[in-house]
Amino acid sequence: MIFVTLEDETGYVNLVVWDSLAQRARRALLGATLLGVTGKVQKEGAVLHVIAERLYDHSELLGDLVTRSRNFH
User: Is the pTM of this model over 0.70?
Assistant: First the structure.
């Protein structure tokens, strides 16, 4: 299982990616600058979790936009 923290202008969401999906979508998971996700949303108090079902690399939609990632490792 892999945990990914996603952030947008509204806050954070915890993405849970099971190993089988991580292996199938490895390129998107590790290389996408703009990651799309479909899955099931779970809410525990104020904390949101998304159990990922599919991952998409939408990086091409950024065009020439310069982006920077905040890596926490």
Answer: yes
